[in-house]
Amino acid sequence: MSRPQEARQSFFPFGNPFRMLSPKSSQLSPSLLALLNCFEDTLAVRLRKLEALGDVLSLTWMKSSMESLCETHKEIQDLIAALNLPVKDWDEKWIDIYLDISIKLLDISNAFSSEISRINHGHLLIQCALHNLESNSLEQFVRAGSSLDSWRQQIRSKNARLEKCFCFLDGLEESLNLPKVKNSAKGKVLMRAMYGAKVQTLFICSVFVAALSGSSQKLLDLDVPDTHLWAQDFNRLRGNVNVTLRNRVSANSGNLLKELQGINTVVNKLYPLTQGDSVSTDEDSSRVSIRQLRTEAEKLSGGLNLLSNEVDSFFQIVLTGRDALLSSLRATCTGTDPTVGKRVGLPVM
User: Fold this and answer.
1) Per the confidence metrics, is the pTM higher than 0.85?
2) What is the domain range of residue 67?
3) CA–CA distance from 282 to each of 85, 141, 278 (Å)?
4) Closest residue by Cα to residue 191 from 19, 29, 319
């Protein structure tokens, strides 16, 4: 199957979501309108829940946002099943575009997993430092300084895989400007629902990249028109999150994640105490700091594990949809089942 050669590929196979706003294209049956309104109402509720959580730059918020994104992608699968749109009716170019975008989503998921693994390695350095700090040996206490210093160096370094996501976000945002194409009533419903899922995906991914890379340059500044039932909730959430992220970056506060900042605060107190031979492990201040470091390390470990699970779930949703599409195409080409594709649950991208 050949790839389209255009410099900018459109994202959705069903065209521009704003074409639904014209009188001619707004005539939907009650059943189709109910499906669309149900999707948009549910998306609005998800966005309000994320806003209510607060602590945008915490692993808890990131885990919840990825979980919300997974739910939206699963709902798109359910919507496709309810609309009963057979894959065999999709244009070849649309399918190529879908496969291309799904690969990019898999890449960005892998980039997030890579950064989580890198932070987990840093957590092992903290565990090693704690082992030495909690001993009764002055020599081991001093030795902990090496692990603490390694942590500081690693956490300041950059992940090249995350930086590659900047171009991906650019392409994803550009794909919101779609060419006009003729489409069916069912296609219009799915296309408009996909627009909502696409915006949420782009927003969440941009927040992840900013929080993990420490750069706010690719944050999404899109204002969604009020014609979408979820628009006000999205615009409010996006505005508040972006302000928080940009303020943190402009303050030159280093790591943006709350849990990493918590560890760094304690490490900066402890590291000077591990230098030299005059260190006393009996000092109350050092013992308090050691307990604080263990508490912060446990928060980091627990948060990373939960976030990693959600990122893996997102990866699997995209991969499963991609595999389902390819399987349906193979079956359609062989002509083994004339209904193939009707039950395929394809995720957003």
Assistant:
1) no
2) 17-334
3) 71, 11, 12
4) 19
